[in-house]
């Protein structure tokens, strides 16, 4: 299966990263892709998608009892998002570091949220918080045949 190799090859770990509607509107798709690319991670899938409310409610179902849940779903449905799958060693945890803390006022400069935003409800990007979450989110947002299995040309220059 698509996920079976996660167990055996650490370089095959995958995470779900999404550029939220504010990130798309503010022209940040290229910059956000660039940060994952230049780190050495491999892009496995990517699409611009105006997500249906049901998908977003499912995506954020663990937050359903939070006071900001309805506003969060409305924000995420306010325009297209750029959904991606990135692959590489420790990409889930490292992806979260590249994004920065959830609240942009706590995000270190040099992170995406630290560099580009201010309010937690307009924090421009999403990243899976654990390997199991990533597997759930990838399956939610992508069909199996949208995930591209290919050999990365740079691989031997990135991994020892
Ligand atoms: P994460 O995106 O860093 O994983 P979560 O706690 O999973 O953070 O929350 C999901 C999203 O919900 C956040 O990225 C943010 O957009 C939004 N959010 C979280 N806390 C608040 C809040 O207190 N007010 C408004 N929106 C929030
Ligand atoms: Mg989260």
TrEMBL record:
Stored PROSITE patterns: NDPK (PS00469), NDPK_LIKE (PS51374)
User: Keywords for this entry?
Assistant: ATP-binding, Kinase, Nucleotide-binding, Transferase
GO BP, sorted A to Z: CTP biosynthetic process; GTP biosynthetic process; UTP biosynthetic process
What are the Nucleoside diphosphate kinase-like domain coordinates in residue numbering? 12-149
Q: Which protein family is it in?
A: Belongs to the NDK family.
Spell out the protein name for this chain. Answer: Nucleoside diphosphate kinase
Question: Where do the annotations place ATP binding?
Answer: 20, 68, 96, 102, 113, 123
Which SMART domains does its entry note?
Answer: NDK
**Co-factor(s):** Mg(2+)
GO molecular function list: ATP binding; nucleoside diphosphate kinase activity
Catalytically driven reaction(s): a 2'-deoxyribonucleoside 5'-diphosphate + ATP = a 2'-deoxyribonucleoside 5'-triphosphate + ADP
The record's section on CDD domains has: NDPk_I
- Classification via HAMAP family: NDP_kinase (MF_00451)
Concerning NCBIfam families, the annotation shows: PRK00668.1 (NF001908)
Q: Which residues form a coiled coil?
A: none
Q: Where is the active site?
A: 126
Listed EC numbers: 2.7.4.6
